[in-house]
Every structure is written in C-alpha cells, then in structure tokens.
Amino acid sequence: MIKFRFLHHVYLSSSFKTGERIAYDVCDDITSGCSYASFVMNKIKTECGDDINIAGHCFFSSESGTEAVKKYDGYFEDVRFVDDLDEFISLIKESRVLIGLDVAKYIISQIQCTQLKLQKLVYLCYADYLCQYHEKLFDDEIYAFDLGPVVQSVYQKYHGKKDLDDEIPQDAKIHEAIRSRILFATRGILKLHSIIGTLKKYGGMSASELVKLTHRPNTPWSVVYEPESSYLHITDPDILNYHRNET
C-alpha cells in the first residue's frame, strides 16, 4: 500500500512573453500544516492583482518535486515549472502588461486592415480607454507621424507592409489565444470591452477617413505634429485634453 506523505499545491498560469504555461509547486509534508501554500497564493494576488487568472491543483503523493507532479497527471507534461516564487510572480506580472502589438493582433483577427488603418485603430483604442478610465490601455510610445498617430510596437512589426490579411491565420484557436492575451492583462475584461466598443465606432471607416479624423484641428496629433520632425511624442495629457475632437 502506497503511503502518501506530501501534499502538492500547484499554481498554474501563463507567460505570454515566453509563450508557455508556467507553474509553481508548493510541496508540503502533510504533517507540517501546509501553511506555506496559503502564503504563496496571497503573495501572488497581492503582487499580481486580485483578478489574476491562475488555476490551482491540489493532490497527495508519495514523492516531492515536479517529476511527481508530471507523473500524477500528464496535463503538466509541457508545463515549465519555476522553482523561484519571485521569478514565477515576475513572469506573470510581465504578462499582465499589454503592448500595442497585442491590441493590433486582436484587431487584425476581427477586421480587414491595411497597416495605415491598423495604426489609427490601435491609437483610437488607446485614446478611448485612456479618456474613459484615466489609465493606459498598453505600454507604448505614440508618435505624431505625417499620416497621424503611430504606435511604437505596431510600427516596428508592420512597417512597410500594406495588406495584413495573412498576418493572423483564420484559425479559431489562434484567435482565442489573441483574445485571451488581452483578458489576462490587468483589468483585461474592461480593456477588451473598451476595444470592442472602439472597433464598433471606427472599424468600418477607411484608412483615409481615419487619417482625416486624427488630422482635425485641435486633435492630439495636430497639437504635436511638426513637418520634417520625427518621433514627436503624443502624450497622455495631449490625449486627455484633445481626444474629444476626434470623436
């Protein structure tokens, strides 16, 4: 008869930066009272937010270590176990911060876009969210280029490309992964809802119509832009003060 000696609390999450599932295993001797597992969960929520999407698995075993976890359930076979709690938390926190490219991928998965139209839609998603909730939708610099606002990570990825139809395959699993990336972010449900609302307002407009919209007098772009100057920042105060002229 196998005698169970250990209780495993496995905390499972995702690292969108490395593109893998990650886990942290709290393995307690069942005679210890298992108080450390409660400490770990509280620390994760304190540092990553109460709305963190993390799964917990609990089971008894006769062995300690991650190999015992994988032996218990093949579900964990392709999971990377992180030995250090602070590293595990750091990977989660990194994935809770969006960049403009995350939003761009979601937009491409929903509507047809040229690179120019995409830039304007990503910017408008940011501006709408900022003005409604007074916090960043994503971490990126936004610049005033000749044809309107440009988001740094989106420009780096798609500069020089016109038709983006083949950038995101028409695959339901990929589209769900892109959507999940946004939902995993801090206040992800709120952010996704805001993005969907912005696309309902502007998604049917052409690239040239969106350029005209952002070029109106007293828009965030117009108060910053200077001909023959490059990489001029459109700041959050600019957007908060003038975005109403784009709506």
Structure description:
- The protein is an alpha+beta fold.
- Helices cover 47% and strands 16% of the residues.
- It has helices at residues 35-48, 66-72, 85-95, 100-110, 115-133, 152-158, 172-184, 188-202, 207-214, 220-224, 236-242, and strands spanning 6-15, 20-29, 55-61, 80-81, 142-145, 148-151, 232-233.
- The strands form two sheets. A four-stranded mixed beta sheet has the order 3-1-2-4. A three-stranded antiparallel beta sheet has the order 6-5-7.
- Strand 5 and strand 6 form a beta hairpin.
- The radius of gyration is 22 Å and the shape is elongated.
- The termini are far apart.
- The relative contact order is 0.13.
Rg is 22 Å
Main sheet? 4 strands, mixed
**Tally of helical runs:** 11
**How does the helix and strand content classify structurally?**
alpha+beta
- Average of pLDDT: 90
- Estimate what percentage of residues fall within beta strands: 15-25%
Q: How many angstroms separate the termini?
A: 71 Å
Per DSSP E runs of 2 or more residues, the count of β-strands stands at: 7
Q: List low-pLDDT spans.
A: none
Query: What is the global morphology?
Result: elongated
In short:
The protein is of the alpha+beta class. The chain is 47% helix and 16% strand.
Pick out its properties:
247 residues; alpha+beta
Please outline the helices and strands.
Layout: E1 6-15, E2 20-29, H1 35-48, E3 55-61, H2 66-72, E4 80-81, H3 85-95, H4 100-110, H5 115-133, E5 142-145, E6 148-151, H6 152-158, H7 172-184, H8 188-202, H9 207-214, H10 220-224, E7 232-233, H11 236-242
Parallel strand pairs: 2-4
Antiparallel strand pairs: 1-2, 1-3, 5-6, 5-7
